[in-house]
Write a structure and sequence with these properties.
By secondary structure, the chain is an alpha+beta fold. It folds into 2 domains: about 1-55, Single alpha-helices involved in coiled-coils or other helix-helix interfaces, CATH 1.20.5; about 65-130, no CATH class. Helices cover about 40% and strands about 10% of the residues. The chain has 2 helices and 6 strands. It has helices at about 5-55, 100, and strands at about 75, 80, 85-90, 95, 105, 110-115. The strands form 3 sheets. The protein has a two-stranded antiparallel ribbon with strand order 1-2. A two-stranded antiparallel sheet has the order 3-4. A two-stranded antiparallel sheet has the order 5-6. The longest helix is centred in the first third of the chain and has 50 residues, at about 5-55. It is elongated. The chain starts with 6 loop residues before the first helix and ends in a 19-residue tail after the last strand.
Length: about 130
């Protein structure tokens, strides 16, 4: 038997329930417990279905494949210094100068960070390792 309940235990539970509730209220009690269990099952099934539906929906926020422009300032050990202006290319797009891209930028939020920082000061995500 499940949970280690013997047939004698079930009989004792039924006798105690008859004594406490009486033979007239016992069917009503059984009906109300059955309704409660079916409502609980329906609610849990509905919640599970909604969760699966939300998990299977594609994310509406897509990451664009273009490179974001660097921030206005570049992090240094002593603080932030103004970034060098962008250099125009032959096709009209502006290419950031090497001085503007020097520093540690968060790959999650793009915030500038100090060169010796290991985690982003804005969002807290881990910064990429230094490339030497």
């Amino acid at each position: 038997m499940p949970f280690g309940i013997q047939p004698i235990h079930i009989l004792i539970i039924i006798i105690v329930a008859l004594l406490v509730f009486g033979p007239k209220k016992l069917p009503d009690l059984g009906r109300s417990i059955g309704k409660m269990l079916s409502e609980f099952r329906n609610a849990s099934k509905e919640m599970t279905d909604n969760f699966r539906q939300e998990a299977n929906q594609p994310n509406s926020q897509t990451i664009s494949p273009t490179i974001a422009t660097p921030p206005v300032s570049v992090p240094t050990a002593s603080g932030f210094t103004p970034a060098a202006p962008a250099i125009p290319s032959t096709d009209g797009e502006k290419i950031p100068s090497p001085a503007a891209t020097a520093g540690r930028f968060c790959i999650q939020c793009g915030a500038p960070n100090l060169l010796e920082a290991r985690f982003c000061g804005n969002c807290g995500s881990k910064l990429p390792e230094k490339v030497v």
